[in-house]
## 1
Amino acid sequence: MKQTITDILSANGIKNVGFCAFESIKGHLLDCRAKERLPQNSKTVIMCAFAYKVKENPPKFLSRYAAIPDYHIVCGDMLATACKILRQKYPQNSFEAFCDNSPVPEVCAAAIAGLGVKGDNGLLITKEYGSFVFLGEIVTDLYVDCQNQYKECIHCGKCKTVCPVSLNKTDCLSNLSQKKKLTDSELEKLKENSILWGCDICQNVCPMNQNTKITDNPQFINGYRNEYNIGEDTSERAYTWRGENVIKRNYENLIK
Ligand code: B12
């Protein structure tokens, strides 16, 4: 069964797949509207990792995830297509796809599924692609035998040392860059760290992110843009969801 599912996903471009028992994450579900879509009697979470590093050199002022087409759309579409095929193959069962906007604590579930280790920076770090992977999943009431495993990084401490806010979630610069209202000192923090959208500081220093592979996803490769320009077509970019004014404000803050 595992092989059949993995083959179906792989045929649809989803190559990094692991299985997590729903039971393992049931007590840690995130509170969100998407929770309503979970299949009744969910048994298995099919975790998928999508590599997204397009070039070795980082983009200008943007985090890597903001330099490519919005992963919610790209990975969401890939998962939706795979779901359709799984529903045909297993008509008695339910399959629901989620990506980011998900009740599943994706990093923990992916670590349990054996896709990688949970880093001190809170991110899933894979062997091949480091932490430059997005996570998405298909939750199903189909039972798949899962071997639970959960590993953490080596706790070298580099991510915490280098992070300007010591990995504090509220002050996280990625979080600030997405907020509609910022204080002057918060804006200053973004400027000091040359941040336009998102933050990769904790990822860039991670030893497990050195010499990692680049993605072979054609949508990420073809849609890559090294920088943001005012007036560009922002549809289908990860920074559009907050409205254009937020990225514009950050841009003006950086160049002033
Ligand atoms: C909210 C959120 C953010 C917020 C807050 C981040 C944070 N550190 O909490 C902000 C906006 C700051 C953010 C930033 C980023 N994010 Co974000 N974010 C999320 C989101 C939607 C939810 C995370 C969350 O709140 N989890 C709940 C908290 C409480 O989990 P926790 O800290 O791990 O603690 C819980 C567990 O440890 C659990 N627990 C404890 N013991 C056990 C035991 C078991 C067995 C289990 C199961 C659980 C468990 O209980 C704790 C409390 O509930 C996830 C998607 C998702 N649905 O998971 C993406 C996600 C984590 N983000 C992602 C990304 C890419 C980023 C950025 C790198 C983007 C960028 N370049 O700027 C940054 C990185 C910043 C950082 N170092 O964290 C990716 C990470 C991919 C990866 N490789 O891991 C995710 C998975 C989205 C995706 N679908 O790809 N993010």
Note: Residues 1-256 form one domain.
## 2
Amino acid sequence: MVDPLLRVPQPTAAELAAEGVSVRFQGLAALSEVNLTLLRGEIVGLIGPNGAGKTTLINCLTGFQRPTTGRVALAREDTAGWNPARFRKAGVARTFQAGRLFRDMTVAENVEVTGVGLGLDRKSAHSVAMEVLDWLGIADKAARTAGTLDYTDERRVGIARALVLPPAFILMDEPAAGMSDSEGEDLVGLVTSIPTKFGCGVLIIEHNMRVIMNVSHRLYVLDGGRTVAQGTPAEVQANPAVISAYLGADV
Ligand SMILES: Nc1ncnc2c1ncn2[C@@H]1O[C@H](COP(=O)(O)OP(=O)(O)OP(=O)(O)O)[C@@H](O)[C@H]1O
Ligand SMILES: [Mg+2]
């Protein structure tokens, strides 16, 4: 029998990039001329103070926000006019800063919806959903109504939805926010294994500096919508602009 997954085209893109992306909301410059590259197989951290433009950048990279100027390119192809569903089909998935589950559906159904949306039949969608839920350690809650989950498990289901039919890239908006230190560390441990387990590139926003410096191969730092630093964790931590962005000091 043909593997049902093989009938769904698998994403092959090797690079997702923001090229000179600016976003203006009325008078406010949420992003100004931001460049970012994410390659398959790497974990890239995105940090910056509240309101720096981090979520807006993820929104642009996933089709939820149109750049005012500049462009987002997937495997060098211009994505102008693509909606989020088209990004997902082409292999770009994301998680949200807050919930967004179908609260009256079961955990398994919440994840299956993504598989069906990507072209799987119901049965295959169920089996891939269970695989991802199992990997995230919540397969035992598959039959629970999503609305009854605690916050930590809600976050896990959001991640499961993003990882169904492994995307080429997963963009995670503060996946550990609101978790206890140990829950957050468990989750970040899983995030670290996403590139090898699923073959994805990972972009992750995370406020805990120790955690983000540990998991990221490279980082970008935004402040006031501008890139103020980028590089390896060691380079970024030694950068005066980062110290200034976080401590508000003049350097
Ligand atoms: N839809 C919108 N309309 C108007 N202003 C917006 C909109 N979305 C974001 N902004 C503004 O753009 C700026 C960047 O917001 P964004 O949510 O991207 O920041 P962030 O770095 O994700 O912050 P946080 O760490 O608090 O999540 C902020 O000043 C925010 O108020
Ligand atoms: Mg945000």
Note: Residues 221 and 229 are 5 Å apart (CA to CA).
## 3
Amino acid sequence: MSELILHHYEASPFAEKARRIMGLKGLSWRSVEVPMVMPKPDLMPLTGGYRKIPVLQIGADIYCDTHLIARELEQRFPDQTLFPMGDRGIAYGIGAWSDHAFFDDILTIVMSSAENWEARMREDRKQLFSEADWAGAKAKLAHARTQVRAHGALIEAQLSDGRRFLYGDAPGFVDLQASHMFWFCWRNFPDADEMFAGFERVRAWEERIAALGHGNVSPIESGAAVEAARLAESTTQPWVDPDDPQALPLGAIVDVAPDDYGKEPAQGELLVYGPDRIAIRVEGERTGNIVIHFPRLGFRVDLSESQRS
Ligand SMILES: N[C@@H](CCC(=O)N[C@@H](CS)C(=O)NCC(=O)O)C(=O)O
């Protein structure tokens, strides 16, 4: 199997979730540091236009979004399972709370200080979160802090019987689906201790997860990762769900885009199309033939303009 290459940057909570998956599974991987703002000249050829990180590359197969990164790593490395309590469905579903509800309240706090940011970062994030209420963030700050505390209270309650991890004594994906948001708060908000005052169990739990580490990491240049894709061949086989409500034909040229923010679509030939994932084949000048994978949940697939009659 080709080596695991994670495209990411240090400060990202979603990247921290992916790094913690590597840690929990004890994996060895190569790290590409991606710029925090556009342009991302060595990432976009691999993702077909999807701009977010983290992105996992295994040869010529590119996996976008932490949901799918978890799925793929669990499939390829089942030994140290992400689901010690058998929560193979719900652990993914919890992302709708942490990566959306919880994240949105964190985002409001982050946006409320946007006037102090470097102009380049502000413009980039305004473009990324174009539907967010930038002008109203300051007025919503006090409320957002109450919400962040309320999210913390959910975890404190879950841990109240003294268990070490959310579902018991073994850490799993469910823990990683929530801990990255606390990681972000404690790193970035000077008043995080205040917001989570009294939640001693949350703090100890987050530290236990951090102690799992990130696995064995070694750096690789972004250009070398693109070259690794060009030299490899995808191992993905075509597959279509016969019961898919959208019923698109394999081989159709489609646009795939997240339905929340950063909606720039990736365009390619439909190769895999099911309730848990989508994959498209893309031929790029620098990458040769690659296959880009996305989760189905939270992503739209539409026939490209050229295919609509
Ligand atoms: N649903 C995605 C969210 C990823 C995400 O929003 N990543 C942020 C970094 S925290 C990002 O890429 N922002 C845009 C950028 O860095 O250009 C996932 O789970 O991977």
Note: The first helix runs from residue 13 to 25.
